[in-house]
């Protein structure tokens, strides 16, 4: 095998077009050499001289190159970006993607209802907020960062300074930017206790703001803050009740709310100086009431879903 064939097969094996181009160029070159040799051994032939003059080795090789891939790589000019520019580009891309995604969620949002029938249910919302529902409670996703709640729920709202998170109850709205808090939305009233951050409450008439450790009660006619100097802690998620020198009346209200029973007090019941310091963990309603009655002189009866207090006092 000739050297040229070996070179071509090495560069581009199994490709016949390149081989044919080489053969054509070689034959044309050999014919011109033959014509040149005959000029030295014979009389001048105008046609042969013409062919000789027309032969141009450089031109022939150029034609050959156009038919055969020489394997040269295309040079691409690269633009080098500084690290600062790269990070800025990434930041802009993430911001734009987030805005586009939130707009998409708003325009394509479908209402969804969540129920906690037999046990607590934790709901993950599209904006990465979380809601824990107590048994018998429900949550409705109305729109992006807009929900309605019935019953008791604990909210862990994802922070977003540009977009308010809104909770609708029977008695008004709760609005936050990013925080965690308890909401108790019953038929008679709605209560909010803030664990972290800042919360706004509005019943259409009044508006107040709560910060960590504060509690408020809201209905259609009134909106007021609750004094928590007695350090009452009630967490239905783990069934914990903690009273630190709290008044008997506040304790009974908290117990009734915690166990979802109606509290009925004597007509002549008045705030007293009785204080209670105790803690209950995963206790039943009957056990809690028995201990309170031993600490004080309280008398009571339980009837269906009602806690009827017949006597108050220490």
Which helices and strands occur, and which strands form pairs?
Elements: H1 3-11, H2 16-41, H3 46-54, H4 57-67, H5 83-107, E1 112-115, E2 121-124, E3 130-133, E4 138-143, E5 146-156, E6 165-168, E7 173-176, E8 180-185, E9 190-196, E10 198-202, E11 207-211, E12 215-218, E13 223-226, E14 232-235, E15 240-247, H6 248-259, E16 262-264, E17 275-281, H7 285-295, E18 299-303, E19 306-311
Parallel strand pairs: 5-6, 16-19
Antiparallel strand pairs: 1-4, 2-3, 3-5, 4-5, 5-8, 6-7, 7-10, 8-9, 9-12, 10-11, 12-13, 14-15, 15-17, 18-19
Describe the protein's architecture and organization:
The protein is an alpha+beta fold and 314 residues long. It folds into four domains: 65 residues, no CATH class; 29 residues; 115 residues, Sandwich (Jelly Rolls); 74 residues, Phage tail protein beta-alpha-beta fold, CATH 3.55.50.30. The protein contains seven helices and 19 strands. Strands 1, 2, 3, 4, 5, 6, 7, 8, 9, 10, 11, 12 and 13 form a 13-stranded mixed beta sheet that branches. A three-stranded antiparallel beta sheet has the order 14-15-17. Strands 16-19-18 form a three-stranded mixed beta sheet, with helices on one face. Strand 18 and strand 19 form a beta hairpin. The radius of gyration is 44 Å and the shape is rod-shaped. The termini are far apart. About 4% of the residues have low confidence.
């Amino acid at each position: 095998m000739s050297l040229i064939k070996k070179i071509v097969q090495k560069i581009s094996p199994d490709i016949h077009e390149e081989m044919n181009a080489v053969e054509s160029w070689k034959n044309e070159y050999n014919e011109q050499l033959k014509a040149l040799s005959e000029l030295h051994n014979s009389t001048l032939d105008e046609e042969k001289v013409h062919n000789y003059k027309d032969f141009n080795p450089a031109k022939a090789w150029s034609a050959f190159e156009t038919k055969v891939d020489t394997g040269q790589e295309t040079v691409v000019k690269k633009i080098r970006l500084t690290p600062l520019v790269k990070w800025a580009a990434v930041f802009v891309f993430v911001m734009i993607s987030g805005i586009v995604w939130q707009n998409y969620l708003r325009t394509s949002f479908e209402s969804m209802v969540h129920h906690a029938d037999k046990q607590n249910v934790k709901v993950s919302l599209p904006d990465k907020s979380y809601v824990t529902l107590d048994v018998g409670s429900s949550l409705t996703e109305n729109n992006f960062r807009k929900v309605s709640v019935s019953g008791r729920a604990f909210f862990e709202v994802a922070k977003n300074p540009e977009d308010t998170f809104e909770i609708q109850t029977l008695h008004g709205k709760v609005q936050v930017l990013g925080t965690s808090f308890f909401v108790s939305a019953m038929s008679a009233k709605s209560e909010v206790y803030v664990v972290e951050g800042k919360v706004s409450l509005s019943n259409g008439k009044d508006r107040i703001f709560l910060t960590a450790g504060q509690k408020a009660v809201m209905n259609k006619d009134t909106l007021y803050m609750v004094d928590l100097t007695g350090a009452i802690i009630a967490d239905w998620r783990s069934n914990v009740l903690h009273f630190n020198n709290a008044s008997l009346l506040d304790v009974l209200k908290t117990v009734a709310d915690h166990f979802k029973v109606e509290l009925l007090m004597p007509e002549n019941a008045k705030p007293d100086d009785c204080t209670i310091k105790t803690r209950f963990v995963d206790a039943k309603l009957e056990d809690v009431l028995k201990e309170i009655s031993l600490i004080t002189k309280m008398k009571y009866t339980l009837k269906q879903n009602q806690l009827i207090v017949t006597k108050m006092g220490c």
